[in-house]
Amino acid sequence: METFSVSSRIDSLPRLLPVTEKLEYLLGRDIVREVSKGKERLDRLAGAIQRVVDEVLPGIGRHVSHASQVLNDNVEAINGILAQPVPTVRRLQRAMGRSGAFIAQHEHYV
Fold first, then answer.
1. Per-residue pLDDT of the chain (110 residues; tens, 9 = 90+)
2. Cα(98)–Cα(104) distance, rounded to whole angstroms?
3. Of all residues in the chain, what percent are helix, strand and coil, respectively (each to 5)?
4. CA-to-CA distance for 89 and 104, rounded, in angstroms?
5. Cα separation of 72 and 65, whole Å?
6. Containing H/E element for 8?
7. Among candidate residues 84, 63, 66, the one with its CA nearest the CA of residue 74
8. pTM metric for this prediction
């Protein structure tokens, strides 16, 4: 059975002196005030960013709404333009079909 001994474990304890020296240094430099100043600057920056976002978002919404309205106003014209190639493609398909028959009929002249 092991016995507990303070003297055998005292060397394994972490050295706290460097930590306390750093804390004293930071407190002496008024780190709390410096952190507060940094937080105030970040708060001002966050407020400025939020103001810009608040100014920009309505404009984006208006542009999206306007684009949607333009598309809705022109949906018939867009569909008409998209449908125009269909008859042309069908005419080309018929011509290709006739040309195949024509070539087959007259290939002996070539």
1. 566 555 566 667 677 888 888 888 887 888 788 889 999 999 999 999 999 999 999 999 899 999 999 988 888 888 888 878 888 888 888 888 888 788 888 787 76
2. 10
3. 85, 0, 15
4. 23
5. 10
6. helix 6-9
7. 66
8. 0.42
